[in-house]
Amino acid sequence: MRVCLVSSSFYPATFYGGPISATWDLSNKLAQNDVEIYVSTTNANGLNRLEVETNRYLRKQDNFFVKYYHEELINNFSLSFFFGIFNDIKKSDVVYIQYLFHYTSIISLIISVFQTKKIIVCPRGSLGEWGLQFKRKKFKKLWLFIFVKPFIKDVIFQASSYIEKKDIIRKYPNANVEIINDGVDFNAFQNAEKKSRIEILKKHTEIDFDEISNIFFSMGRLHKIKQFDVLINAFEIYLEKDKNAKLIIAGSDDGMGNQLEQQILELKLNNSVFLIGQVDFKHKKILFSNSDYFVLASEFESFGIVIAEALACGRPCVVSNKTPWKHLEMNNCGILVDNEKESIANGFSDIINKDFDSNKIKNYIKSNYDWEIIASVFLKIIKKK
């Protein structure tokens, strides 16, 4: 079976965060299960272009190939994609489309319907209330009416969580929706290099601290939806009880970097809160494994891959209840909080007074979200007649 995976961006375009690693890991796992994966994507990476060979398939491993189409207008148009995607889809049995509000998605959807292919669409939050209301909401409404609504009966929607399924059904009550969570490469997050709290802070801040009580780690694009401003305000409150605690935030700037830097300075938190920019996999793994707790104050997550990654490292989490991790507390993996500063600050205080078993946290993730499990669910869907 040959799958054409269409995505506006693809690994190593890590600017876009968790979904990039998710599609990469799923592709690898499907290829290992004798599914031919042919990715049709672009060379966009934020406002830059990847340094990759373009407009031809590049072999990544057995059964796994990627074609990076060159974009003349980054994030807006690729002439080679426009002329090449028809044949990419024609050669495939199944078309797997990522996102909705991108020209690559809509061109591929229309061509796939015309060629009567089996189509799976993963909106990745495109139909969530926050996403629909954030910027150009009239344009998005028109876009969905013209390019998506006419083809609802022709596609299977992949919801990456129960929250996303509700969002899809609310918009399209008759849609065919399957929940297939994102996952995590559990084994890849094991056996991280051990570092002390002081070593971690020295590495990423070049500051030698005499005493550090707890390290709270967060990660994501510095974008309004991630609510890092709320997280920083919450940490200011928490520091009244734990003055030697530190908050590390990793992630590329997506519009909020300067504002967050200014906020840290105005609150005089420059010795307590640190924006360290984007980190590679090695250092992400070290940060997850050696921090005391992971925290995410996001206003919306269709899944929340960073939460799964933190749990795979055995880290208990303080997580916004706007994320689809309602089972976090019942499995003794962390605390859910309201997405406002007082509730998050209380979450910090509560979590340091609770006992967590790192191995049990890891086993929860391995048993439910390892890519081996997720890929088997995906295989059943694409092979279903």
What can you see in these coordinates?
The protein is an alpha/beta fold and 385 residues long. The chain has two domains: 2-183 and 370-383, Glycogen Phosphorylase B (Rossmann fold, 3-Layer(aba) Sandwich), CATH 3.40.50.2000; 186-368, Glycogen Phosphorylase B (Rossmann fold), CATH 3.40.50. The chain has 14 helices and 16 strands. The protein has helices spanning 18-32, 79-90, 103-114, 129-133, 137-147, 162-171, 197-205, 228-238, 257-266, 281-290, 305-312, 341-351, 358-369, 371-383; strands at 2-6, 36-42, 44-45, 48-49, 57-61, 64-69, 94-98, 118-122, 155-159, 176-179, 215-219, 246-250, 273-277, 293-296, 317-320, 334-337. An eight-stranded mixed sheet has the order 5-6-2-1-7-8-9-10, sandwiched between helices. Strands 13-12-11-14-15-16 form a six-stranded parallel sheet, sandwiched between helices. The protein has a two-stranded antiparallel sheet with strand order 3-4. Strand 14 (293-296), helix 11 and strand 15 (317-320) form a beta-alpha-beta unit. Helix 2 runs parallel beside helix 3. The longest helix has 15 residues, at 18-32. It is globular, with a radius of gyration of 21 Å. It starts with a strand and ends with a helix. The model has no long low-confidence stretch (mean pLDDT 95).
